[in-house]
Structure prediction request, 205 residues.
Amino acid sequence: MSHPVFLSSSALPRMPEGSRNEWRGFFGHGGELEANAFFPLLWRALFGADDIRHARFIDEYDIDDEAAAADRAECLEHFGAEATYPYLVTDKRTALARLASRREAILAAVGERYRPIFDCFAELIAHGFADHLLLRTSGPGIGLGRGERVGKLADALLQEAGVACLAGPSFGPMGEGYIRFSIANSLENLNQALERINGWVNKNL
Prediction:
């Protein structure tokens, strides 16, 4: 079963609140990464215990979003108006300082072969993310759809943005609804790819 977890850029020092119609302007301010069912070690290294906050389930939906009206009503029925879930938030400067301070301890535990990946991740956060970082397990993601729609998205990114990726189902049923990118390339090329993807998303989604 898929349960996506997101590391998101945010212009806000907290989760967007649907009661303020803030989801509509949330995306497009920087990078976002997605994992399935758990958050990776390098994501954890960005945060501390004091970064735990809580958001209301009902605030996952903008109050004026007619397309989400049924989901909002169902959420109220199941959870009520005040039920919350935890998330993590920090500012980018603090996150990068934590990452740097934990670098050698993490690499000592996982091995030197991961040093280039660690350094690439730090560069991605430094240059690809906005002023605040959210680690969220709820809230809307960019709706990729399923099956054929994901394949069309992969084709569009290749043809229109010049970035190659594969539809998740190419790797089995757990990939349904996802796309996969290879990061086995230079940091310069990865940054260029992120810029192209960001431009395509801002134009088309």
Notes: Residues 4-136 form one domain. The mean pLDDT is 85. The chain has two domains: 4-136, 148-204.
